[in-house]
Design goal:
The chain is an alpha+beta fold. Helices cover 72% and strands 6% of the residues. The protein is built from 13 helices and four strands. Strands 2-3-1-4 form a four-stranded antiparallel sheet. One of its GO terms (cellular component) is plasma membrane.
């Protein structure tokens, strides 16, 4: 197996540069034919011309003063504008501006035909878009490219003017609604303030009402304490022992007299009890004590009656005053609740008025901005700045077919095909000469050298015949080799 591969490697080495150069006529003819075919294609091929311009597209916007403020590069914006340029609406307007040179077939879509040849490429890290259009007529390519960009600019103006007008109308309607809402809330606020019908600010009114309620509460507490005192006096008038109450509760003279008589009565009763243990019932001193006790009891009852009458009169007046104060306190609390409700509603209305006022001011500023932008658009300004950097120049040289590169490629292709044919032919010839050697048994690798020499001599003879020259000694060399 090793001897077989060694022989094959040596046989391949026979197809060398000299063998290839021996077929120079064939290679030259094939190359010439390929170049001729390329030249023939150049005479019949349709020329394709490409019109190209670079366009600056910037999203400037329109401020409150109607002037633009350049913004930073926006890749998404440029990509969007590239799709707008390629949109069927833009292409349709361009076809209306510049109709096709030849009427399209019924089945053809002129918009699709234009889109197939149109290229819109945003340049990286710039605000520039590269627009190209290909056509077999250079004049038509330039006109079509110019019409597409004109249609794109007209589309931008129409969209901005329509959007600006609609925005101004919507914002004006919203501003009117907010103004009407503010007027309604001001009317509600006036009605709420008139509801508690007190002058001054809400905080001052609340402080005054709180002071009135505290004063009424203090008066009611004093009347209640006075009532309790008078009730104690009335209870003491009914009691045998009496209770300790302030003298200011009733007439001081009556109260002191009642206390004095009551004390004397207690002393007389104590003396009577003491005399009962030592004196008999008929004893004169005991009888005098009993008479004195009866007199003191009558006097005490008379004084008590006067005290009860005076305490009852004062108690009725105090109870009436306490009840009146309770009524006033209840009314004042109701008044405070109404005032609290009114103040809360007033505060809510004031907060809402402030919020709506801020929204109204913001809407009014937006309306003024949009009106300025609308007027700027009417004067020809636009938020999207579009400028063509290059002139619309009619291309002079086609991009296809290019004669020089095409002929070079055809020549190289012809040469490559001819070389391939030479290699295949030489390989087949070597295979036919090698077959008898491979069919014979090989005992050692040293016997391969004479056989290879015979093959080389045969190749040289074949090359001489192919070149049409007489190689002296070649036949003799072959004969010697065979011997």
């Amino acid at each position: 197996m090793t001897d077989h591969h060694s022989t094959s490697s040596r046989l391949v080495d026979v197809v060398d540069v000299r063998t290839i150069l021996s077929h120079w006529r064939t290679i030259l003819c094939a190359t010439g034919v390929a170049v001729a075919l390329g030249a023939a294609y150049l005479t019949v091929a349709e020329r394709i011309y490409e019109a190209e311009v670079r366009v600056v597209v910037q999203n400037l916007g329109l401020g409150l003063d109607g002037k633009g403020a350049t913004k930073t590069y926006d890749k998404e914006f440029l990509s969007t504008q590239a799709e707008v340029i390629r949109s069927p609406l833009t292409i349709g307007r361009a076809l209306e501006l510049v109709p096709p040179a030849t009427p399209p077939e019924p089945d053809d879509d002129p918009v699709e035909d234009v889109l197939d040849e149109l290229r819109v490429i945003p340049l990286a890290a710039t605000d520039i878009v590269r627009v190209t259009f290909r056509h077999n007529d250079p004049q038509q390519a330039t006109r079509r490219l110019e019409s597409i960009l004109a249609s794109y600019q007209e589309h931008l103006r129409d969209v901005e003017q329509t959007t600006a007008s609609e925005s101004v109308e919507l914002v004006a309607r919203r501003e009117s609604e907010l103004s009407e809402q503010l007027d309604n809330m001001q009317t509600q606020l006036a009605a709420v303030r008139a509801g508690y019908s007190l002058g001054g600010a809400g905080t001052d009114v609340r402080q005054r009402e709180d002071a009135v309620l505290r004063d009424l509460t203090d008066q009611w507490a004093a009347a209640r304490a006075r009532r309790i005192q008078l009730e104690s006096v009335a209870d003491s008038a009914e009691s045998e022992r009496g209770v300790s109450v302030p003298e200011a509760a009733v007439d001081s003279s009556l109260y002191r007299e009642m206390l004095q008589v009551s004390g004397e009565l207690r002393e007389a009763r104590a003396a009577l009890e003491e005399s009962k243990r030592i004196l008999g019932p008929k004893h004169r001193e005991r009888i005098a004590l009993e008479q004195r006790i009866a007199s003191l009891e009558q006097e005490l009852e008379s004084v008590r009656e006067q005290v009860r009458i005076d305490a009852g009169r004062q108690l009725a007046a105090v109870r009436s005053q306490e009840q009146a104060l309770q009524t006033l306190i209840a009314e004042e609390r109701t008044r405070l609740q109404e005032l609290e409700t009114g103040l809360l509603e007033e505060q809510q209305l004031l907060t809402e008025i402030e919020r709506v006022g801020e929204l109204h001011a913001s809407t009014l500023a937006t309306r003024e901005s949009l009106e300025l932008a609308d007027r700027a658009l009417a004067r020809g300004r636009a938020s999207v700045f579009v400028q063509v950097l290059d002139d619309y120049v009619v291309p002079q040289e086609p991009i296809w077919p290019l004669p020089g590169p095409l002929l070079v490629v055809c020549g190289a292709l012809g040469m490559l095909l001819s070389l391939t044919w030479v290699v295949i032919r030489e390989t087949d010839l070597l295979s036919s000469l090698r077959w008898p050697l491979e069919s014979a048994p090989h005992e050692s690798s040293a016997d391969d050298a004479p056989e290879l020499d015979i093959l080389r001599d045969a190749r040289a003879l074949h090359r001489t015949v192919m070149n049409g020259t007489d190689a002296p000694g070649s036949t003799t060399a072959v004969t010697g080799a065979h011997s």
